[in-house]
Amino acid sequence: MAELTTTVKMDDGVNLHVKLLGDDSTSTKKPLLVSLHGAPGLSTHLEPLASFGHLSNLFRVLVYDARGSGKSDHIGPFTHDRWIQDIENLRQWAGADTFVLAGASYGGFVALDYAVRHGDKLRGLILRDTWANGKVGAMAALANIVTSSRINPDIHRQVRVWSGTLYDDKDFEEAVAEILPFYTPPEDVVSPEDLPESTEFQETIKYHSATQNFAFSVNMPQFDVRDQLKDIKAPTLVVVGRHDYVTPVSYSEDIAKSIPNARLEIFEYSGHSPPSDEPAKFQEILLDYLKTIL
């Protein structure tokens, strides 16, 4: 498997940490798939790499740390406009006229905004555990967290996370640590896939509260694409875990109903991450969907 890890400079001089898989001598014959990670200021390219890296025999798979996250420059602006332009820059850098775009969690918000603005560039769209309305989504997630019987978080700290008013990186780290169990299925929900936990894509987590704060204090109040979903023409796969209380099933149902050519798949044994909770089923459904657009 050909693999390239490099730095790509954006039009404003910011450097992004990029990994491109499947880019060999026949790469011009392979379609491009770009996958966006979630959790701005926290997650990295390793999340989408674990979910989509196995497709490198069929696609050129491009994953990267968004600006403000991981090894990419922590230089703003951290707006959706800027993150969308970064996607456009990477598409052009990879030499693709059209491509498949995948977005997980917060990456799904950016993917939806991209699909609304640049739908002519998409041959496919994959949305995993996301929402289409920032105000309602963030407030509902906070409400579910503070009323959950599974965790006992510091309510004021969680308000700071979801309103984008974290004190500093340490505040961000403590906020994430106390709600991690909330993202997984309940203990009494057992997946039929008895697989060992993989550590292949794990790395030391670095917290960048400035990115998170901008995303949730500025971007989320402005993000609402519900009325524009009907204009998305790309064949769309919408994936969600039945036990996702951050971006609940109803949000994915509404998205799938509103996009004309959308397919909804609910994973009965998953929380916020079907690719890790039910990996075999996720890969099966993903390949079945991708066969229709290859």
TrEMBL record:
Gene3D superfamilies: alpha/beta hydrolase (3.40.50.1820). GO terms for molecular function: peptidase activity. GO terms for biological process: proteolysis. Residues 31-278 form the AB hydrolase-1 domain. Keywords: Hydrolase. Pfam families: Abhydrolase_1 (PF00561). The keyword Hydrolase applies. GO terms for cellular component: membrane. Belongs to the peptidase S33 family. This is AB hydrolase-1 domain-containing protein. It comes from Talaromyces rugulosus. The lineage of its organism: Eukaryota, Fungi, Dikarya, Ascomycota, Pezizomycotina.
